[in-house]
Amino acid sequence: MKPSGILAASLLCLAGAVFGQLAAFGQTPDKYPSKPVKIIVPYAPGGATDIVARVLADQLGKSLGQSFYVENKPGAFGIIAIENMVRSPADGYTLMLGNVTTNAITPIIYAQKLDFDYLKDVVPITDVVDIPEFLVVTTKNFDVKTVPGLIAYAAKNPGQVRYGTVGPGSYPHYDMAYFAKRAGDLDMIAIPNKAGASGVINDMLIGSTQAAFINVASTAPQVDAGSLRALAVVNHTRLAAYPDLPTMQELGFPGVGTIAWQALFAPAGTPKNVLQTIFTATVAAMQTPEVSDAFKKQTFNIVPNASLADAKTWLANEMANWRKITGEVKIETE
After folding, report:
1. CATH number of this structure's domain 133-234, picked from the four choices 3.90.170.10, 3.90.1150.30, 3.30.420.40, 3.40.190.10
2. pTM score, two decimals?
């Protein structure tokens, strides 16, 4: 064989060995992403999770040079979306933007409905944002003005306070049920509305329900107009726009109410270098003025994890917290 032929053969063998080593570690020499990336959202278009996914997808597409697009897979408390992701190739081209209900509560309370092992088959990439919520009451024939006032009214009128939820087992349902338990086992009645936050707000505006935990972005217009009254905020700190409104922890109820997070997930087995690329690009995206401003306008807190390992620890802690809550508060689910 000529020297050039020997060299070519040696290079081919070396390339094959390198490719084999990369494959053994779940990596390939192909640049990621080399084709469009799908982000599954477990709700119909227009809600908070969908908004977060679309803002993020747009910026990731710009920074990584490939299209990131949203595919809505609503239904079954997020199970349809999670199953769709888990059954997709673990190559980084199918991701999911889920929230506290779909990716922490559902895997616990609907574990028997899952035909996969959530903890083994799903990996978190990073938390993205979390969303403050108000404890609000209607102002229509309901004169409660403070959290102690709501507790006193409910205690004197058992079974007369109706609170809105977006469905059995949703985090707003658990929030109020857990509040009722912590406030002295108050007898309050849950009224679900499958139309989501807008449906619950409408019920409160007409006075058919009196109270609810609902995210700030959805309720701020009605609070500002005086048709709903905010009694407290569930957030890390008081909100700048409502400086006189106390947090639930200030009122003696730490851990009551949900700062509803939205996070990015992938199928387990996705190569670590691909996960790292997505993680790094996502954290960088949240620091851009376009994304930061879009989230701040929605009153979303930007809360990325410090690393992929930190994301795993964070999700494990979240699920431990929800096992505690769902263990203490028994809710009949569909």
Report:
1. 3.40.190.10
2. 0.85
